[in-house]
């Protein structure tokens, strides 16, 4: 039988070993093509005996693993089994038997690794041919059995003893190998080397490739879906290895969600987007069948791993269950949704800022090309398909809203995903029920509301505004900016149904924001001017300060917009009045007081419209010009109020056309009333005994109370202000513990008012 095989293969008779050795010698002397390729091209599957196959493939194996025995070509020797890549189509027919009779792990694994390397290095729109090559290879013969080895699915680190090149000392060289499929998920519009991305296409090229993105990405990942689906159906061991692969990908790359991270240690944007779409394909059955049965213990276990600083590859998964595969796929999907599109959206907003604030035209042009890449991605059909999954995910959480076993991980992934993406997917509506359930526990959901709703429940918005007072400054500033805009869009103040103290605190905190925002703008301008005197270079600190000023100007506009729609009469409440008048007096003093010349921004190349800021402040004065209690409170503010500043404001507004004629008339009327009140107040203050004066406001008390802690006497209205604020006794810095009325002092004050003040 073997003689017939010899005649068929060599077209002659003879000893099979001698014939193979003869060809080896001939090829070594006069090489035309790699010998292994020559043999495999001649091979015809299905016609040779078992005996011939064993001998044939033993020689093929030798020529591939010890190529120096059959060739003098250094390139072929260096390539080893990878030489098959360059003749793949010519020899693919032989891989069924090669995978059985050769040391497949030593031949086919290096070949797959080489195909992966070529895939990762290829232009994105040329990568499909290599992934298709992998698809054809994996489905051949016993190639799938290779994937029972966990080493193909996990990252491994190994050390090799070496010598230090300089001192010839023993040294360990560390090598890290990655899962075999990783390179096949890398093809993308840009590489991962630069700070944001390396989008190398020219503007003219983009118009030509924009339609390719969907086609190439879908085709590539459909191939990967077919490959891995085929593998996990072959053996339970492979299925379990795939679950471990999923776990490694989402746990080892959790730094992807950080603001700053080492790009060399985590997956690229391309991998994240490709893998996310691949997982969407895997989830298609879950969505179609509306599967609701997931192993929540598995979720909780993975939540623990994701919280750890280090992830050990030998971490054992939980005991296998039939639905652990679909649970693992579902969990991976919700995590990778954030690793991919949510992260890209964050980068997108960074690039927008870079374009807005960069003074370098080259930097702007570079950032604009990156933005084009992102816009292509977010306008693609593969992105829009995420709407199907988000609808399913949202409904799953709603249906299980009473299930206390749903871990925070699931909700966090959902809300992080919809923060930016919901409003980009026109067919997807973010669930208000889910938001309202968690909004007071997860305050960052304010951003989800901001990006997905033009208005919201005014009661919830006001409560959130108040709660943020005791949060860290960065979070408070960011979220209150979103809330302010939402409240302006929502209005509906007549529909508030809140505790009076909550409402009072809200209006108080709005004034705090106004005072703080203008103060921070002034501080940033002065700091920037000092920094720019110290250096002529555009340092990172100078850029940061310019960005800060611009951000705060936008935030200040939102605060003024909010004040415009508020009924200012609420500030006539005794709990708010002194704070209200003090804030607007201080801001007027900042804008046109003795130090206002320091705010000139011409030399620092920053645009701040102080005329507009002054107009918005004066508008508050004119709206309150008929309120006598407001005028009296203004006059009592000895620290910040000066009627001459209002007179100056009137002159400036008249000359610079800052206010219209009606507003100027109201401001003039206010100034006249203030002058009258000052005359009366000065006479009264000359005769008020010190014991009747509030030590914090320097105003005569109406209802004196004794603080339980420090035993200091203050007015009841001052105590109410302390309760609204930080809840601390200003005289001993301890928590406020209440008060008692000072009845005796109250009688003295009333008697003084009857006998002394009535004369005036």
UniProtKB/TrEMBL annotation:
GO terms for molecular function: ubiquitin-ubiquitin ligase activity. Residues 216-368, 571-674 form the Ubiquitin conjugation factor E4 core domain. It comes from the Eukaryota. Residues 341-368 form a coiled coil. Residues 688-756 form the U-box domain. One of its GO terms (biological process) is protein polyubiquitination. The keyword Isomerase does not apply. It is found in: Cytoplasm; Nucleus. One of its GO terms (cellular component) is nucleus. Pathway: Protein modification; protein ubiquitination. Keywords: Coiled coil, Cytoplasm, Nucleus, Transferase, Ubl conjugation pathway. Pfam families: U-box, Ufd2P_core. Signal peptide: none annotated. InterPro entries: Ub_conjug_fac_E4_core, UBE4, Ubox_domain, Znf_RING/FYVE/PHD. PANTHER family: UBIQUITIN CONJUGATION FACTOR E4 B (PTHR13931:SF2), UBIQUITINATION FACTOR E4 (PTHR13931). Belongs to the ubiquitin conjugation factor E4 family. This is U-box domain-containing protein. It comes from Anncaliia algerae PRA339. The lineage of its organism: Eukaryota, Fungi, Fungi incertae sedis, Microsporidia, Tubulinosematoidea.
